[in-house]
Each structure stands twice: as structure tokens, then as C-alpha cells.
Design goal:
By secondary structure, this protein is α/β, with parallel strands linked by helices. The chain contains 7 helices and 4 strands; from the N terminus they run βααβαααβαβα.
């Protein structure tokens, strides 16, 4: 479907397929100082979605939500240590419920959420480390909270970290996403963990 073609005859132009992405995929300015891998956005992901007529649901950055854009925290405390506290997990839990609510709303309207894209392996809030049965403890706080919230609601969506810090890993992740967008989520659920 090309842009603008859906309503020419009065029809609904929505593709009803989308992926949920962390904020910094669409806005690298959300990343902590020194962590951005491009000046603006993850172009490969955005263009791939455009080419497959797949929408993007932007999830809020948990680090910004809890610590602010400058990641303000006590001197010497890591972002992960600050985020993985009762208050930080509560913040991430609230964000996870908001994202899950949105995913459920899209599903009720007949949309399919094909995948959920997290971040680099070291991301305190958004890293995705799969072990075949779920996210491992070193995954980001938001990703763990979101996976738990989605499972409470019996929603299964493949999670994948977009490892844009390393060109070879990022190429693997983009190819995985290309397969998901081409075939849909159901065929790819068992393949969500990186090799």
C-alpha cells in the first residue's frame, strides 16, 4: 500500500500492523550522553517499517521518565542501580501498564503488534536478553516489567533488542525484523532470541 492510497475509494488506509519500539529508536536524542549511535534515529528500522506498511508505537524512555533527560542520580550511582530500585521498578511498572493498555487497545481494533523492539545489551531500562523461556535478569527494568505485564494479560509478542552499538549485531537484528515484517509475528515467536 502506498502512502495516501487507502482512502481514495473511501476505504480505511490503515495497515493494522505495527511494532512497539523504545523511544531512542525514533529519537536518538533520548539516549544518555555518549550513547547515541546516530544523530537522529535508527533509519534502518524506520525505513523497513515504511517499506512493509507497518506502523510504529513509540514507548517512553524509562530512564527519562524516572531520572530526567540528564539521568540525575547520586554521584557514583549507575543508571541501572538507580532504575532497579523499588521506586524505579514502580515507574517502569506504570510505563509497562500504559504500553500494555495501548497494545490491547490496538488489538481490540483488529491491529497486530508484530514485535517489540528494545535496546542494546547494556541498556539499563531497555536491554533484551532472552533465554528461550523469557527475559533473563540482566534485561532492562522496563523490558522485564513489560514482559510480565503482557504475560499477565496473556499477550505474547516477540521481544528483540536492536543492538545498534555493533554493526554486525545490528545487521542480524534488522534481518530478524525483516523476517517478522514479511511473515508476521506468529511465525517468528520462537526465533526472537539472538544467536
Amino acid at each position: 500500500m502506498s502512502p495516501g492510497s487507502g482512502n481514495a475509494a473511501g476505504g480505511d488506509g490503515r495497515g493494522r500492523r505495527l511494532i512497539a519500539v523504545i523511544e531512542c529508536i525514533l529519537n536518538q536524542n533520548a539516549r544518555d550522553a555518549g550513547a547515541a549511535d546516530s544523530p537522529a534515529l535508527n533509519a534502518e528500522v524506520v525505513l523497513l517499517c515504511r517499506d512493509h506498511d507497518v506502523g510504529l508505537l513509540q514507548m517512553p524512555c524509562p530512564e527519562i521518565a524516572f531520572l530526567g533527560l540528564k539521568r540525575t542520580r547520586p554521584k557514583g550511582e549507575s543508571i541501572r542501580a538507580a532504575l532497579d530500585t523499588p521506586a524505579g521498578r514502580r515507574c517502569c511498572g506504570n510505563l509497562a501498564r500504559e504500553v500494555a493498555d495501548r497494545i490491547e487497545a490496538y488489538a481490540r481494533e483488529g491491529c497486530e503488534v508484530l514485535a517489540l523492539l528494545g535496546g542494546n545489551p547494556g541498556s539499563p531500562g531497555c536491554a533484551v536478553h532472552e533465554d528461550g523461556s523469557g527475559l533473563r535478569p540482566e534485561s532492562g527494568v522496563l523490558m522485564r516489567e513489560l514482559r510480565a505485564e503482557l504475560r499477565r494479560r496473556s499477550i505474547e509478542i516477540p521481544f528483540r533488542g536492536m543492538r545498534d552499538h555493533d554493526p554486525a549485531s545490528h545487521a542480524e537484528d534488522v534481518e530478524w525484523l525483516r523476517g517478522v515484517l514479511a511473515t508476521g509475528a506468529a511465525a517468528r515467536r520462537d526465533e526472537s532470541a539472538p544467536p
